[in-house]
Specification:
CATH topology: ATP Synthase, domain 1
Shape: globular
Structural class: mainly beta
Radius of gyration: 11 Å
Largest sheet: 5 strands, mixed, barrel
CATH class: Mainly Beta
CATH architecture: Sandwich
Amino acid sequence: MKVTISKPDSTLYEGEARLVQLPGTGGKFEILENHAPIISSLQKGTLRLLDNDGKEHLFEIRGGVVKGQQNELIILVQ
């Protein structure tokens, strides 16, 4: 799935991923390919992403939102 992780002043990641684990306000959750459409708020924590090569990327965030549909995730973080 295509993933874009952006801060107000920069893009942290743009590319393909097979798994994204997010710190939701209701607890951690994961998004995989073909996930149902989703919009969720995020809290402070670690955003974990596994790219298509199996490499893990970790991002410490202070909050944000995620929107996903049709195998495309847009994650806006602080």
